[in-house]
Write the structure tokens for this entry.
Amino acid sequence: MFDSVSSGYFSTSDADWPTTGADGVVFIPMLYALYVALDVEPAFYDVRGPTFPLVVNTRFKYVKRASPCFEKTLSHATSGKLFAKLTGIDVNVDYVTRKPTPYPEWFRRK
């Protein structure tokens, strides 16, 4: 239920990290997983229940200045039966100071 994203999604050009914004600030991503919870429903273990096709949905519950909270669900495509839910909070951390730092403006616009 984890996604992988290429660094090109976050950068303002095709260059790899670190990137320098229009304000001259160098941005080196460093995320700290503050909270992760996986809730597995009993239906996940039921071999007689529907299994395929499955759908993974991702949504952001909120995005603060330095930390988004996301929720991912694994469910059956047609019945909507929920199998599992993953909730997590990441914190954007400054590479040098190791303290929470706001996302750059260009990142928040995406």
In short: Residues 42 and 83 are 7 Å apart (CA to CA). The beta strands are 19-20, 26-27, 31-40, 54-63, 68-76, 82-92. Residues 1-7 have pLDDT under 50 and may be disordered.
